[in-house]
Amino acid sequence: MTRPAPKHETFIVKEKVFTMNRFRFAPSPTGHLHIGGARTALYNYLLAQKTKGKFILRIEDTDRERSTQGHIDAILEAMQWLGLNYDEGPFYQTERYELYQQHLQKLLDQGKAYRCFCSPEELDSKRQAAMQAGKKPKYDGTCRNLDPQQSAQETRPHCIRFLSPDEGVTVVEDLIKGHIEFNNQELDDLIIARTDGTPTYNFVVVVDDVTMQISHVIRGDDHLNNTPRQVQLYQALDYPTPQFAHIPMILGSDKKRLSKRHGATSVLAYRDEGYLPEALLNYLVRLGWSHGDEEVFSMDQLKEYFNIEKVGKAAAIFNPEKLLWLNAHWIRQSSPERLIEASKNFFQQKNIALENNPYTQKALASCQEKVKTLVDLANMAVFYFLEEIEIEEKARNKQLTLENLETLKKLLPQLLALPDLSEAQVNDCFQKFGEEHQLKLGKIAGPLRVALSGSMVSPGIFEMIEILGKERIQARIENLFF
Ligand code: GLU
To answer: Is 205 in the pocket of ligand 1 (CB under 6 A)?
Structure first.
């Protein structure tokens, strides 16, 4: 007879005694912050904001081989860019080993964990035997029977196992998935510290949640299988089981798990492609959550509306076109200051230091309705800020013919003679000039557009003329003749 494990009744969820809502986002820095992780962070953040709780950032860097400082920095940068500010942290698991040791000792002292001296070879042959007998391989509990005091004196290599119940079920009440029962027989005595003494993943997560007094665990449903183990560990550490919400995965349009094949998956890649964080957050919140049939949400609205009850049970499908549509929307919605601030880096890459002044504001506003990303915006608006514009080859060949250059030469003094460059004045000037030289508007505006912006795709001609002003217009047209 092996040592009896605790009965399943012990593991029934106790009444919650949390005095405050405390949420955590716990990324592993084995890669960038990706779309799925950002959504998890967002849901936690929103619920913390909505319930006036706390949002905690915990970096789960125990996988030393795959965790890198570069990934940690990228995660922190992405969180900052998204504006998902945390109230506490970042905490690093690699700095918390002492705490894990204390909790290991506590479980050993209370007889809730035991030292296991079975060698890898022994375990392997037991596994083989079980499989041959058609049984699920599971640790057979050999070392449960050892005297704890004697075991503590032993110098042989050993790991530490958690004494899990043999019978009954472990219940997970999930806010999204509902009531789930896991058969305890399926779960063997989990190794909570390896032979080298390092604590294992499920154990450190629970110690962290316990010591950080986490009330809600909201994460991807790829962790659902860890949850019964963790529930047993919370109970063993005399901690009330947090509320769980396991968010369904994000899939690509082919219903396969979202990966690079479906386009950019990292948050910073979207930043670099000219997406606004407000657009990405808006898109992410809708990936699995709904509020009537509304699509557009500001963060302030989300802090009020977001709720876990409306998160769907089915996997969400990533739709890059919708994200782009939302980005265009949020660009159009941006105040002049916001637009300048958000697009600064993209102009910087073109060696232009964008200043917040009326000229910049008007220049960007004239492109705002026409672009879908900040990269497009910088490409379209750059001509406003260049001393000497670059003229696209195709545009030059089509519009800056000798004949059209002649037109521009004659038009310039007339433009310069106008009292101002308002649309009414310029339009009037074009009409008269057209009649005088037998030219249709396109024959005037076409070459002028290319002369002023370098491209055939530009903001509206009248708007552009008014913003550029006489000096720049003169310089750009005269430049064509040198
Ligand atoms: N570190 C885990 C991950 O990045 C999350 C663990 C948890 O939220 O409990 O997937």
So the answer is: yes
